[in-house]
Amino acid sequence: MSGQSQRLNVVPTVTTLGVVKARLVGATRGHALLKKKSDALTVQFRQILKKIVSTKESMGEIMKESSFSLTQAKYVAGDNIKHVVLENVRNASVKVRSKQDNVAGVKLPRFEHFTDGEPKADLTGLARGGQQVQACRAAHIKAIEVLVELASLQTSFLTLDEAIKTTNRRVNALENVVKPRLENTISYIKGELDELEREDFFRLKKIQGYKKREIERQMVAGKAFAEEQAVEKVALMKGISFNSAHNILAVGAEKDEDIIF
């Protein structure tokens, strides 16, 4: 894209130059701020990515332990443990709530688990395999905690990814489109103002030359008029013709010049 197509279509005046310079300063500051925001989001994005990788690695082991504990509980307490557990459950003891974290102006959703109310005494499996049932419950609660944490990280990861893409698009637009266009506009206005200044200077020189020639013409005309008045005066005083009076004045002028020299 040529420089002509990258500049704004403006009238080259001093006022416009000041406005475009102010816009360039604002664009430069905005570019710097957006660049810092992009860097901060990228750092947070990498941290979340590391946490996601470590959480997924630990999740496999935790899910394996919870499944194995469920198998142990079924083996000890029998297959009817599912109905006993469902009969004893009234409300969920582990719940999830959402919050928001602010990272460089981007709101990231964050999920956290909590226990609703006091944990009640659970007598499920007290007759057969109570210890295995409690171990199975603890293993699944730990699995739920990991799943909630992973969901929070995944949601923040996607939100940050979209925010980074949007911020980088704005940074690239300011760096490659807006700032070069404003800089080219400033160069164009300065060039036009310099050209106008040169034209004004040339115009002033022409006017001064015209005035000088007009003054010289007026001086010559005044001198000629004075000579005519002197010739007429001499002709009237001596009663001779204008040519004779003119010759007399010319001879007198030559003698004056000889005396001077």
Protein model, in words:
GO terms for molecular function: proton-transporting ATPase activity, rotational mechanism. Belongs to the V-ATPase D subunit family. It comes from Amborella trichopoda. This protein is mostly helical and 261 residues long. Mean pLDDT is 78; it is low at 1-5 and 257-261. The chain has helices spanning 14-77, 81-88, 130-238, 242-260; strands at residues 94-103, 106-115.
Helices and strands, with pairings:
Blueprint: H1 14-77, H2 81-88, E1 94-103, E2 106-115, H3 130-238, H4 242-260
Antiparallel strand pairs: 1-2
Helix pairs in contact: 1-3, 3-4
Q: What is the highest CATH level, the class of the domain at 14-190?
A: Mainly Alpha
Average predicted confidence as pLDDT? 78
Specify the overall morphology. Answer: rod-shaped
> Largest sheet at a glance?
2 strands, antiparallel
Question: What's the helix count?
Answer: 4
Gyration radius from CA atoms, angstroms: 50 Å
Order of helical and strand elements: HHEEHH
Which secondary-structure class do the elements indicate? Answer: mainly alpha
Taken as a percent bin, the fraction of beta residues is 5-15%
The first-to-last residue Cα distance is: 76 Å
Under the CATH scheme, the architecture of the domain at 14-190 is Orthogonal Bundle
Uncertain segments are 1-5, 257-261
Query: Which fold does the CATH topology of the domain at 14-190 refer to?
Result: Helix Hairpins
Quantity of strands, as a count: 2
Q: Strands of the largest sheet, in order across it?
A: 1-2
List keywords for this structure.
ion transport, rod-shaped, V-type proton ATPase subunit D, disordered N terminus, Helix Hairpins, proton-transporting ATPase activity, rotational mechanism, mainly alpha, disordered C terminus, 4 helices, 77% helix, single chain
